[in-house]
Design goal:
single chain, 163 residues, alpha+beta, Alpha-Beta Plaits, SH3 type barrels, 2 domains, five-stranded antiparallel sheet, three-stranded mixed sheet, 3 helices
C-alpha cells in the first residue's frame, strides 16, 4: 500500500516519478535471499495505465541511481518499474474510487467477519470505507485495514477479436 512505503524511500523515488509527469502508485519489496526485488508501480495522472516502456526504463535508471547513491536498500536488489497492468494494484484511496463498479480481490491486515481474503464487486468507496459485494452480501472494509488489493480484469470476446 502507498501509505506503507517508508518515507525516506518515497522521498527518493516519488520526485523522479513526478519529474516524468507520472504518479507513484506503490513500491513492493520481495525480501529473502539476495537479490531483493523492488517493484515500483507508476501511472499517469488520469489513471489509464498508459506508461511507455521507454519512460519506465528512464525512471528505472534514475531511481536506481538515487537508491544506490544514498545506499537506500540494505541488500543487493533488482529494480523493476512498471505500470499497473491488468491486475491493477489498488494502493491509494483514489485507486479504490476509480475501481468502483468492478471486481477486486484484497487481503486485510486483520480478520473482518472471520476472513482476511476477499473477492467481490466493489460497490462503493466512501469516507475511507470500501463496500464490497461478496457472495450476495455487503462487507465493509476500512481502507486502513487493506494490506493488498488488486482490480480483477474480466476478459471478454472483444479482447480476443482480430482488428
Amino acid at each position: 500500500m502507498y501509505a506503507d512505503i517508508p518515507e525516506e524511500l518515497r522521498g527518493r523515488i516519488e520526485p523522479v516519478v513526478t519529474d516524468h509527469g507520472l504518479e507513484l502508485v506503490n513500491v513492493e519489496f520481495t525480501r529473502g535471499r539476495p537479490p531483493w526485488r523492488v517493484r515500483v508501480v507508476v501511472d499517469t495522472p488520469a489513471g489509464d495505465g498508459r506508461v511507455s516502456i521507454d519512460v519506465c526504463a528512464a525512471i528505472s535508471r534514475e531511481v536506481g541511481a538515487q537508491l544506490d547513491a544514498h545506499d537506500a536498500i540494505a541488500s543487493a536488489y533488482s529494480l523493476e518499474v512498471t505500470s499497473p497492468g491488468f491486475d491493477r494494484v489498488l494502493a491509494r484511496e483514489k485507486d479504490f474510487q476509480a475501481a468502483c463498479g468492478g471486481e477486486v480481490k484484497l487481503k486485510t491486515r486483520h480478520a473482518i467477519e472471520g476472513h482476511r481474503t476477499f473477492r467481490g464487486h466493489l460497490e462503493s468507496f466512501e469516507a475511507g470505507v470500501a463496500r464490497l459485494r461478496v457472495d450476495g452480501r455487503d462487507v465493509m472494509i476500512p481502507f486502513g485495514e487493506v494490506a493488498k488489493a488488486n482490480a480483477v480484469y474480466e476478459f471478454s470476446r472483444e479482447d480476443f477479436a482480430r482488428a
